[in-house]
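note to self: dont lose this again. the chain is below, predicted strucutre after it. 194 aa total, dont forget to put it in the shared folder this time
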Amino acid sequence: MVDKKNITGIVLAGGKSSRMGSDKGLLTINDKTFVEHVIVAMKPLVDKIIIVSNNKDYDQFGYRRVDDSIKDSGPLAALYSGLKHSETEFNLVLSCDIPMIKTEILKKLVDADLENHEVVQIESNTKTMPLIAMYKKQCMHKCLELLQQGERRLRVAVNELKTKTIIIDAEFDQFVKNVNTKEDLKTINHAVEY
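---
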């Protein structure tokens, strides 16, 4: 297991949220914003937290906020920005649109074999989730190289890095769901006992 002092939590909150129509990280469920739910889940496992977003509204949470280094270039650029500003070798990277995420799930990433891999990501329902993952700081070089070639897809980077995938039990699937639309938000509000 990696020592917490050597892990930075990076929350990617810079998405356009075009399907939702508003900034997803600032939506609320159970009186807390999505980004707060994500931070609560990662906090026991990390030493510092960085929020990657150009939106100054995220300053209200009291964590370090960094702008996207390369504007409008998607999650790959956001990941690059977070890793660039991180001071630790290991980084727990989460998107802001998974408000149901639990520390218990994230612990599986922290406990994984990180010596021999650059990325450890979760798989749920046969879908890999590169935005619920641990990244070594050195991954920023591959991110930058791809961005300079005009690539914006995070999956391309993950496929080119030494990546390990952890399949989570079906009972956890509901906790890693992305909330992308108003419909998703309704479903989460109705379905899940918190």
